[in-house]
Amino acid sequence: MSQHDGRPAGSKRRVSKKGPTKGSGGKNRRALAGKGPTPKAENRPYHAAYKRKQYREVREKAAQAQAAAKARKAVIKVSEGHELVIGRNSVAEAVAAGIKITRMFIAGGAAKDDRMGQAFRVATAAGAPILQVDREDLDYATDGAVHQGVAIEVPEYEYFTLSDLFAKAADSDKPGLIVALDHVTDPHNLGAVLRSGGAFGASGVLIPTRNSASVNATVWKVSAGALGRIPVAREANLVHALKECKKHGYFIVGLDAGGSETTRNLTVADEPIVLVTGAEGSGLSRLVRETCDVIASIPIHAAVESLNAAVATGIAIYDIAQARSQAK
């Protein structure tokens, strides 16, 4: 006999586990909630517009940094026809050499340095303003060079002539020793050569007008003030200048690794000499080399292929000075 719901006798009623067939009863309310408006393309990390926005922001920050740097540079704006001499030793030597001071800049505790006393007195006597500035201002004005919190603005370096170098050598009790630089373009090398020349009795330094480092704040700094004592002459044509030196009794000694003599045993050490140094790597130019009377080398260890131009020049000047002192 069948049950009243139409199922066979003895069968069990199936109970659905799916729950209500209509509506969720609130169970999926969160799933149906809205997620808000879609973010802009430039705010979605996976979108190309986002990368373009980041790149644009980086450029804007760089532009702002450059603008700030220019604003700081404007605090110490060097007048046309002038340059900065930086560092305590360089400033002291420049003042001692009688260089005219236009302005003096002091940062931090530099004013307490005893070496600056004379510089203050000279600047004050000349009516030059002494300005207190931030170290950051000097950093920007000197392109990050080591300024030790002091700088003076002076007229651009007034180069000497070759005749001036001859005259200075004639006033000495030693044979003239002029250092000529052939295509040495790094101001650090020029400054270092001046420092060595000042230490070992060079009469002066000769540089060409073109393709050569010129006197600037870096040269003043690296020379440790020797620029105030060693004259720098600049001539348009180095080969012509060397030939003029020959006419005045100078022997032209080129410094090169393939020399027939060494700087320690230079046969013309007691004679007036023009010591010519070429650029590191390329060495002496062809015409300059052909103008030389002697090519000399520095004995070095086989493991070292070459020396820095300034280092080699310093060694050669020392060797010549030693040979001259031993000959007495």
TrEMBL record:
State the UniProt keywords alphabetically. Answer: Methyltransferase, Transferase
Q: Some GO term, biological process aspect, for this entry: which one?
A: methylation
Please provide, in alphabetical order, the Gene Ontology terms of the cellular component aspect for this entry: cytosol
Q: Where is the composition biased (Basic residues)?
A: 10-20
Q: Is Transferase set as a keyword in this record?
A: yes
* Domain RNA 2-O ribose methyltransferase substrate binding: from-to ranges: 84-160
* Segments forming a coiled coil: none
This chain's protein is named: RNA methyltransferase, TrmH family, group 3
* Species this chain originates from: Winkia neuii BV029A5
Organism lineage: Bacteria, Bacillati, Actinomycetota, Actinomycetes, Actinomycetales
